[in-house]
Design brief:
globular, binds magnesium ion, 9 helices, binds adenosine-5'-diphosphate, alpha/beta, 33% helix
Length: 301
């Protein structure tokens, strides 16, 4: 196979020039710096000696999508960044500081709808804002204004007074997105956020999250099991491998940008199809249990 020049891979996750792991940093502090992280659960080696660095693109966060076979440690990796889990060895730094628990700077969205059932849509979006009101220096009016803005942006205007049980699955994920983004997290962690949704709703949600990302500019880590979703959402794709869990490939340069382009339009483009082929080939190698030698279609870590 000879991929088109546009499909050339970038190196696997590694510190950017000037941000070497040892020695003085000359570049900006990475948003996320994963240093030799291993996670064991009893006899299970969930993650083995993972190192990866994610920097900002100029003034915007990157969108990293993560795919890999079930059980390869994708959720474990997100939970480490979220501060819900400590590494057995190694270190995770967020903006230069070791993670020592969850924080408002990191929002998380799960596959399961994670809204409070006893609160309305508005109540759900206001909840975190109320808790963090002092720290965020937002008075009541400002909190309400911010909540209403997010509700409008996720397309739920008119549904403010409804309870989650009155909403569709897609609408409930919209609430979760609004609730997370209201706190303006520096990092948004999404664990198979659209997996429970039907295909048309998934495509709507993909377009929505890309447009919110391009406006709010958090760094996003999103686990998905769909290659085309990974290519549409991400500007780099990590392919994880199992036994033990590692980041086997990073695919970056061939991933076309998506803001402003609906998924069905993007998917018809030749550069998109080429990127899907590259990611699929790397995924097949990983799922087959043998990442094989470095290839032109994906750099092995
Ligand atoms: P993925 O999200 O890629 O499907 P996970 O990160 O959930 O994978 O899990 C990676 C491995 O760690 C799996 O073998 C899983 O069974 C194991 N694991 C995850 N969480 C726990 C836990 N809390 N206790 C024991 N084993 C766990
Ligand atoms: Mg998982």
């Amino acid at each position: 196979m000879s991929p088109a020049p546009a499909a050339a891979p970038t190196p696997a996750p590694a510190p950017a020039p000037g941000a070497a792991r040892a020695g003085p940093r000359t570049g900006p502090v990475p948003v996320v710096d994963i240093r030799g992280v291993t996670v064991r659960f009893g006899d299970t080696l969930a993650l083995h000696d993972i190192s990866a660095t994610v920097e900002d693109n100029l003034d915007a966060g990157e969108f990293v999508t993560i795919i890999g076979p079930s059980g390869c440690g994708k959720s474990t990796l997100l939970n480490l960044i979220a501060g819900l889990l400590e590494p057995t060895s190694g270190q995770v730094l967020v903006q230069g500081r070791p993670v020592d628990g969850p924080g408002r700077d990191r929002g998380m969205i799960f596959q399961q709808y994670s809204s409070f059932p006893n609160l309305t849509v508005l109540g759900n979006v206001l909840f975190g804002l109320r808790i963090n009101a002092g720290e965020m220096q937002l008075d009541r009016g400002a909190r309400r204004e911010r909540a209403m803005t997010l509700i409008r942006e996720v397309g739920l205007t008119g549904h403010e007074a409804k309870y989650p049980s009155m909403l569709s699955g897609g609408q409930q994920q919209r609430v979760a997105i609004a609730r997370s983004l209201a706190l303006e997290p520096r990092i948004l962690l999404m664990d198979e956020p659209f997996s429970a949704l039907d295909e048309p709703t998934r495509l709507e949600m993909q377009e929505l999250i890309v447009s919110l990302w391009s406006r709010i500019k958090p760094t996003i880590f999103c686990v998905t099991h769909s290659v085309s979703e990974a290519v549409y959402l991400g500007d780099r794709v990590w392919i994880m491998t199992q036994g033990p869990g590692q980041i086997a490939y990073e695919i970056r340069d061939c991933i076309p940008p998506s803001p402003g382009i609906p998924p069905l339009v993007a998917q018809e483009r030749s550069d998109f199809k080429a990127a899907v082929r590259v990611v699929t080939e790397a995924f097949r190698r990983v799922a087959g249990g043998d990442p094989g030698p470095p290839s032109r279609s994906g750099s092995r870590l």
